[in-house]
Amino acid sequence: MKFENTGIETLKADLNRLDEVMLEHGLVREGQWDYERVTYDKKYQIKEGTFYLRVQGHVHEGDVGAHKAIIQLMTPLLGKHYYPHGVEYGEGEVFPKALVSQCEKLLKEVKEQVETFAI
I want to staple 57 with a disulfide (CB 3.0 to 4.6 A). Which of 11, 19, 42, 73 is the partner? Predict the structure, then answer.
């Protein structure tokens, strides 16, 4: 599921400050990066299954490995995890309304915070 028109996809921000804000909201980058891309994930384990809120970004300028990069954020996604196949984001998936609302609230908070230092 895509979270369209959150405004997050319009933001460009410094990688180090972005890491701090995302971690404050439970979105973890860990090993989810290469020199041109980053992925922040938040895991939700509820009775309906395991879900991941994912915010991805790509380098606008700089280098992620050197911790000196400006990241262009992309449209956030919500997916359901199926063991052992992975995460599905498709149209046929059913996402609990309470989870969707919780993710929308979190994304709004992230956006508001990132906007304060976005380029």
Answer: 73
